[in-house]
Amino acid sequence: MASFISPARRRFDENQPIYFQLGGVQSRNVLKDFKGLTKKEIKILFLNCHDLRNVLQTIASKTSKNGPLNIHLNHSCPFSLARNVLILKVISATNFNANCAEDFRYLWDIWYNVEWPKKTLDRFCKDVKELIDMGLPEHNLDFDGHQLKDLKDVWGNWLLSLTKLTKSSEMEKVLRNRLEFIHSGGRIGKEMLKSKAKMSKTPEPLIIEQLVSKLATGMVSGDTPELLKNKLTKEIKRYYQTGSCNPASTILKSAAVNPTLLELKSVWSLIKTPRWRVDLYSSPFIGFLPLPLDELEANEEDIAALHCQKMLKKFVASYRQLKNKINFHFHWSDNLQFCLIGTNEMFDIIDCSTLADEVGLANLIISVSPRLDHQSSDALMITESSEYWCAVASSIANYVEEALCAPLSMIPSLYGVRLAHDASLGSNQITSKGNAEGFPDITLTWRKTPQFENVSLGFSPSLEHCLKNLEKKCYFMEEKDKSFEKNKKFFRSYTPLTYYYMVKNVVSRSGNPKSLQDNLLKTNHSKGFSQFTITQKAIEAWANDRPVTLVTAIQPFTPDIEDLFQSFFRAPMLRVMVIPIDHLQIEMENKKDYIIQWIKKYPDVHYIENFNLSFQEQDANLISPTLRVSFVLPKEHRLKPNHCAVLIEMFSGCVMLSLGMIEDMIQETIIKSTSTKKQLSTRPETGQQDSFMEAENCQESPKDFIFNISIHTKDVPKGLNVSSDQLRPCEAGHKITFSIAEPQGVQPLTLCFPYPVLVDCIDATLRRADRSIQVVLKKALNEPWPYDFNPKPKWDVDKFKLWQDLNPNDTVSELYTHVAVQKGFQRLKNYLGMDVFGNSAHLPEVRLLLPMEIARNTIGTILMQVQTKGCEFFAILKAPAPGQALSSTANEKPLFFIRAHPPILSSPFNGPMILLSVLDCCLSEKLVKKGQLKENNAKEDFERIFHPRNKKTTPMTLWTNIEDSTSLLRYVFRLNSTKMKPSSWQEENLPLGKCSPYLATFLSPLYLDHFPAKGLNSSNQGSEQFTCAGCGKQSSIAMKRCSRCKTMTYCSSACQKTDWKKHKLMCSDMEPASLMFSLEVE
């Protein structure tokens, strides 16, 4: 398209940019989860790369044995890109030495400090002049020639601005502007902040105090001593007040203000004086958090700055050692545009961790994931979502499903990616230090998945449901229903083009392009709203390669528009509205309502969500600067001559700018260029064969794939055989092959599915009469993915540190806290005593627990038993049914035998973990029956491992309740086994192999994704919500419990009687005798 139109909604960032020169998120090594480190060449894309910390930390993890790194950095803001190039020039210079105090002070000043001494100023001017005169450093650095000219303009503006920024009066003005910007709330703006303060009954704390408190909360990993916390708080506060993060002993007299942290007058900005526009939460410290407690110089005053400087020196030193193997490629482009049409490169890793909140997670994945190298199973992308995700969902898994409008098990088919770490298992770290409310930012790693092969994705009810959910978010209406606030905050960037790109991606992977695309576009609910008719027709025309009209409105940059851009464009989201001019005039003359619901008053308005907004500087061909707005209409749009276009604020409907009459705008017919490259077919080539098999459209649901295979042959087919690409010990596979013995000559048919299926649960029925095979494939929901069994680098547990309580004198051990945090402090009734979980007294509660609660309680019990009582042997059995005597389970075979290997270790996530050797009893029996395991060998191994002569081996009994709970526990055991190498003892003693029932694994807490921090305070435990099992009524007032099982709560005797028919099936008269917490409420 002549003018790129993004699937993400337009924002006002073009005219009110907020810079993240100091970084916007914690820095990370993006190679951490990448398993293809032995590749000859690794390509990494840092999308929306604010600064170089992620880049340098990633390079620092590389070794000289690895091949070269090709690093691409893209940013939509030229100022951030110009800074990155300058910093790279500085640290690449042959005479730069990070261990030289003067050299490092210069680098630190440029990167982080607002005020500079004379030496820094002189050296900066010299380096920038060299960039302007000689261009980029010759060493391994590439940039588009046209864009390099624009960067030179930025560097030139820096030097020009220093004629003012070296004057004391101008320096004071900038510093004052910085404080005003911070106190005004940054993005919010002064006027809105004042209005908010008037509406609020209680004054809020000063913004600096809020910022300091927020940053200090997550500053250190582990419990922070009070003295250290006070020092850190004081240091952070000094930075926000002064803009300096140098140790106090090194502060020199100021000679200039850092121009790289300011917005200056340029092609992209109309301001007349320099102003501060660095994001409030962007600070020198955030990229290095959390600070490791054991590495801090607690006796120093500037603890955080000294540690951050130490880390940066380390990163820079590593880069200088390896710089001959690093190639940089800089790009300046809209981030989604770069991935969709701006490059043909395929990448092993894409770090887009700063974009999910800005453009929407769905927009990000559908735009970026196609740039992952499809030939590399190790390729991955990284996203991050801010702490406010908790307003959308109650867990990370729910957030992903809500943001992508699909269950986790259907995301591979719809988006072509899957989460590298199972979000349904909660968090692997305690999340209570995210912010004051206990909700952390979340980082998600995504891997590419296989696509459908030789089978087409059909239009199923589940697929329709997912796409309809997405449509509701893409076609945003004005009515304030229950989902209004949620849509406003988290799905405001979704647009009709989001839906179109999603359909396009699904179709490209489905193998049935035409019919599926038609079905998906036909189901669009927007047809029920006339306001989206034009948008829908334009999208359908574009999807079917028909011409459309690109409409461009050009407005001279008048003083009124300039004032609008400078002062009042504070709204977060825009839409173009096409409306008859007389309707618009009525509203403009009326001006009664600030919030205008256009569609209720004027049903003939049209909304256009996707457009391009740009500012073009004055040049030889232009009398004055202009504002250009471009959008697409169907070629036959049938708008009347009296229709005009305006920019409105999305949520209030307020008119921001009139664009003029449609008929007066520039209109250009454009046709989508069709690629001559043949699309890879997902169906087999049948050629001239008389006999062949062909899979019909596959109906996908969250749990399975269902389809038929037609056998095209004259003879009756016989002898069905099914095989797979399964590699033991994995029990799942992506490819399933179907073949028949008769008639001969019919080629086997191999199908591939994005989500792996359970090989032992394939249901395939040969129907001879109609010459077909009816197939049901169950998804491997509780089995690690085949990729997870890949023999790539794994944890060496023999080198892990021992777990230690940081405060051994506390009345409650830190281990107990980690165990308890799995459940949240407000759900004590489900702890079941923690260290006496296996006691039969707890059977009534066990029967009521959900599978995840069973898993968490089992983990907690094993950890506590190992630590406090030295217990090493456990057996997991299925709990007896209600009313069934406990003695009836005496002859029951355990589901799992477990041997724990003390001591407890510290996991890579700084939590407790215990190594386990696990015998899967059901799998052992299955292998013996199949002849893959000799019964005598199985008995000998069991006796040797679980009945050693020198140990007391009576196992502690733990209970599970339903099949789903057992399946989840087994999944946790198997998944954890893929993350670690067996310990030395396990290597020597366990009969591990492809057909072994034994697992060398571990357990560590499965923490809640989030919970209110106030739950850590026992004084708040009384705020627990009680739910009546009879009528469902909820109340914070304590309800009475069933007198027999002590678990179910009721608001009245009537409700208890009503519920008794159902409850008596689960109720037991075995009352809990020794619970750690009292359950009965009188």
From TrEMBL:
InterPro entries: DUF4470, TF_DEAF-1, Znf_MYND. Keywords: DNA-binding, Metal-binding, Nucleus, Transcription, Transcription regulation, Zinc, Zinc-finger. It comes from the Eukaryota. One of its GO terms (cellular component) is nucleus. GO terms for molecular function: DNA binding; DNA-binding transcription factor activity, RNA polymerase II-specific; zinc ion binding. Residues 1028-1067 form the MYND-type domain. Gene3D superfamilies: 6.10.140.2220. It holds the Pfam family zf-MYND. PANTHER family: DEFORMED EPIDERMAL AUTOREGULATORY FACTOR 1 HOMOLOG, DEFORMED EPIDERMAL AUTOREGULATORY FACTOR 1 HOMOLOG SUPPRESSIN. This is MYND-type domain-containing protein. It comes from Daphnia galeata. The lineage of its organism: Eukaryota, Metazoa, Ecdysozoa, Arthropoda, Crustacea.
